[in-house]
Design a protein that fits this description.
Strand 6 and strand 7 form a beta hairpin. Helix 3 packs antiparallel against helix 4. Helix content is 28%, strand content 25%. The protein has 4 helices and 7 strands; from the N terminus they run αβββαβααβββ. It is α+β, with helices and mostly antiparallel strands. It has a 5-stranded antiparallel sheet with strand order 3-7-6-5-4.
Length: 158
């Protein structure tokens, strides 16, 4: 997908975004996209089958993002089942620390907490679940220019 507008990276987030705002950014050098890619690298969303997380960037969305736009941008059928949920609920089980967690589980939960913090700092943050059994999960928000930034993954629920 070609970029039609610059990436705006000045958001109130409490962890560093490489300390710069690149007004002539492309997908490979937009600080927010780089930060989100870094946070999700190697991260699997746990379900009955663990899937990797993709970083997505969509241009020209309405504010706030609508369900038909999510279906269109995500290449889903117009009549697909969609559940809209708060980001905090979408991330609830992956950010929760348990007393029995080892170092790896704690690190993974902290990584998910950072992803949630970044997405939550965007405008109109929202979670979407599309489909049944094999569900496409989105955590999305909007940049100041209206572009959508977020994550997409799959979960299996039988």
């Amino acid at each position: 997908m070609a970029w039609e507008r610059p990436c705006l990276a000045s958001l109130p987030i409490s962890f560093p975004l490489n300390g710069e705002t690149d007004m002539d950014a492309t997908p490979s050098n937009c600080p927010l996209i780089q930060q989100l890619q870094s946070l999700t690298e190697g991260l699997l969303w746990p379900s009955e089958a663990d899937y990797p997380i993709d970083v997505i960037h969509w241009l020209g969305a309405d504010a706030p993002l609508t369900v038909p736009e999510v279906l269109t941008q995500g290449n889903h059928a117009a009549d697909a089942r969609v559940e809209t949920i708060p980001l905090s609920e979408l991330f609830r089980n992956v950010v929760r620390l348990q007393d029995w967690f080892g170092e790896a589980e704690v690190a993974q939960a902290q990584q998910f907490q950072q992803v949630l913090q970044l997405l939550g700092a965007l405008s109109h943050p929202q979670g979407y679940r599309v489909g049944e059994v094999e569900v496409t999960v989105y955590g999305l928000g909007q940049l100041p220019d209206g572009a959508v930034l977020g994550i997409r993954t799959q979960v299996v629920e039988t």
